[in-house]
Design brief:
This protein has 17 helices and no strands. The protein has a single domain, classed as Up-down Bundle (Growth Hormone, Chain: A). It is globular, with a radius of gyration of 20 Å. Helix 4 packs across helix 17 and helix 12 runs parallel beside helix 15. Helices cover 81% and strands 0% of the residues. The termini are far apart. It is mainly alpha-helical and 405 residues long.
Amino acid sequence: MPFLPKHFAAMFRSFPRSFWLLIAGMFVNRLGAFVLPFLAIYLREHEGFGTAEVARILMGWGLGCVVAGVVGGQLTDRWGRKATMVLSLCGGAAVLLALVHTHDALLFAALALVLGSVAELYRPAVAATISDLTAPHQRAQAFAYLTWAYNLGFAISPVIAGWCAKHVGFAWLFYGDAATMLLAAAVLALFLPETRPKLLSSGSQPAFRSLDALRDRRFQPLLLAAFAIGLVMIQFATSLGPLLRGDGIDLETFGRISAVNGLLIVLVQPWLVPRLEQWGRYRVIPLAALLFCGGFALHATADTAWMHVAVLASWTLGEVAIFPLCNAVVSELAPESARGRYQGLYWMAWACSNVVGPPVGLLLLAETGELGWALFLAALGFVAAFALLVMARRIRAEARTRPLA
C-alpha cells in the first residue's frame, strides 16, 4: 500500500482481514443510524405525542435493549457470532419499516420494545468477535477502531438525517436506516467467517451461566458504572434534542451539532487511546467518567449553537476513553467460553439505563428545569467514577493473590 502513510499500513497489517470486514459492516450500519437521534423530536413534532407518551415509547425501546443484552449474549455463545449479527440487523430493518407506518402511541411503544429486542442483539456478538480475533494487548485499540467506525458513520448520519427531516420528510429516516441495516447484514453474511472458538462450536464448553458472571466481584462495579454512564449517554438521544430546541436551534443545526461528536472521535481516538493505555486504563477510566458526565451536564449552561458545540467537545474526550477501555476490561475478565455472555451482561447494564434514562431525563427537564437535569447528570459521574475505582482495586487485589503459572 505505497499510497498510504506507513503508520496506516502498519495499522491495517496488525489486525486480521476478518476484523476489518466486521468494522466495515458496523460502519455501514451506523452510517444509516438516522432514527434514534431524532426519535424524540419525531414523536413530539411529527406524531404529536406528549411527554409521557414519548417517555413510554423510549422506555419500551430500552426494555427491548435489556432483553437483547441477555438473549444476544446467549445466542452469541451458543448459536454463533455471525448468525446473531445477521438475525439482528435483518430483524431490526423489518421493525423499522413497520414503525414508519405506525401512528398509535401504544402500538408504537410495543414495536419500540420489539425493535430494541431484535435490533440490538448484534452488540454482544460484535464484541465477542473482536475478542476472538485479537490478542489481549490489542483489544483496547481494536475496540477503539470499532468506536471509531461507529462515530465516523455517526459524524455523517445526523447531517443526512437532519437534511432529510427538514426537506424530504421523517419517513425517509426510517427507510434509510432499514436499508443500511440490510446492507450491513449482507456484508457480514457474505464475507465474515464465524469466529466462535472450537470448544464452543463442538458443544463441549464448560458449564457457565450468566449468573456466574454476575457473581464476579470484579465485574459488578463495572456494571454499576456502565448503568450510571449510560443514564447520561441516553440523554444524547432523548432530552438533549428538546433542550436544544428550547434554545431555538432548528433540526438541521441540531444534526450538525450532533455530528461534531462523531467527527471529534474520528479525529482523536486512533491517536489518543494507545497513549491512554500506556498511562494505565484503570487510572484513566474513572477520570474519563467524570469528564463525560460532568461535561454533558454543562449543556444546561449553553444557550447558543456554538456554546453547545464547545460543551459537546469537552464530554466527547471522556467518551473517547470510556468505550474502548471498558470493553477491553470486559474481554479481559471474561472466560473464553463466556465472552458473549459477559459482553451481553455489560450491554444489558447500558440497556437498563436506556429504560430508566429517557423518562427520568425528560421529566427532570420538564419538572425541575435545566439545573435539576444538570445536577443529576453530574452526580452520576461521581457514582460511576467511584464504582470504577472499586473495580480497579478488586482486579489488582486478585492479580496479587493469583498463584503464578
